[in-house]
Design a protein that fits this description.
Elements: H1 11-22, E1 27-29, H2 30-37, H3 41-53, E2 57-61, E3 64-67, E4 94-95, H4 97-103, E5 113-118, E6 126-129, E7 134-140, E8 149-154, E9 157-162, H5 164-173, H6 181-193, H7 199-209, H8 213-224, H9 232-238, E10 245-246, E11 257-258, E12 263-264, H10 269-273
Parallel strand pairs: 5-7, 10-12
Antiparallel strand pairs: 1-3, 2-3, 4-5, 6-7, 8-9, 11-12
Helix pairs in contact: 1-2, 2-3, 4-5, 5-6, 5-7
Length: 278
């Protein structure tokens, strides 16, 4: 594939690029381009195919494109903030789990995958955009679990991300989506000690999730990490289910049983606290 040359842009191609760029649509759909072209969809598709061949746009997935600006250089190589693509991939959505932990600085282990929660049943489980080196993992939630989002701004674009409390609880609900219970423990510790999260708020949000295993992991970790949760810990014990749950869903069904918190301890206390002393 050859390099980019502005002289190869036709009038219609240049108008589409300039109009979408002026609208702040670095990521855009075929419908957006069709509105500028003011013609049938097949005409917009043909124009976008030409722009893709010339490396002025990058096809992210069917019907979705990224403008490669002048800074991309002759070869048209460019990166985009990975959050900016998400609103086009699923609706509603929220940046969540391990990615949200990283956003708040609750983990130093930044995953190569961007985790997104959604209630959109038709969302793909995973999407990889090889040209940008990005992989998205979509976690489809029941409606009662989809709440607790806040707006942030990335390069002038509004993005939804789970708030600190919901992020911590989500990770205790599904440790497998945050790198395991150790990363969830870091989020709980940093959220509480940093003041972003309060014990009553943990009780309220965990209760809305309708998964009592959250309270088991929450109570066990709070005691192990000596966290200041005060009387809330007895409220958590009052709502435990009778069965045993695995502490870490990324580990197997092994390890001793903890009768106080009704957990199968498949991670050792040393595993869960080693990061505090290193």
């Amino acid at each position: 594939m050859g390099g980019r040359d502005i002289r190869t842009l036709g009038d219609a191609e240049a108008r589409v690029l300039l109009t979408l760029a002026s609208q702040g649509k670095q990521v855009f759909t075929v419908a957006d381009a069709q509105e500028v072209v003011q013609g049938p969809r097949h005409r917009a598709n043909k124009l976008l195919a030409h722009l893709s061949d010339k490396r002025w746009v990058l096809r992210l997935q069917r019907g979705l494109y990224l403008i490669l600006p002048f800074e991309a250089g002759v070869e048209g190589t460019y990166s985009v903030h990975p959050f900016r693509i998400v609103p086009y991939l699923a609706t509603p959505y929220a940046i969540a789990y391990w990615t949200a932990l990283g956003h708040y600085g609750y983990t130093e282990q930044m995953p190569g995958t961007i985790y997104v929660s959604t209630t959109a049943e038709r969302a793909s489980a995973k999407l990889t955009i090889e040209a940008l080196g990005l992989t998205y993992h979509f976690v489809i939630l029941a409606a009662h679990k989809f709440f607790g989002q806040r707006r942030i701004w990335i390069e002038g674009q509004e993005i939804m991300v789970t708030d600190p409390i919901k992020t911590v609880i989500d990770c205790l609900d599904h440790p497998e989506y945050c790198g395991g219970i150790i990363e969830a423990a870091k989020g709980l510790y940093d959220g509480l000690t940093g003041g972003d999260v309060t014990p009553p708020s943990l009780t309220e949000v965990a209760g809305r999730m309708q998964n009592r295993a959250i309270f088991k992991r929450l109570g066990y970790l709070a005691e192990l990490l000596n966290l200041p949760v005060d009387a809330e810990i007895e409220r958590w014990r009052d709502v435990l289910s009778t069965g045993y749950s695995r502490l870490d869903l990324l580990a197997g069904d092994y390890g001793p049983y903890d009768s106080r918190w009704r957990l199968r301890l498949n991670r050792t206390p040393a595993d869960l606290t080693d990061w505090l002393v290193h």
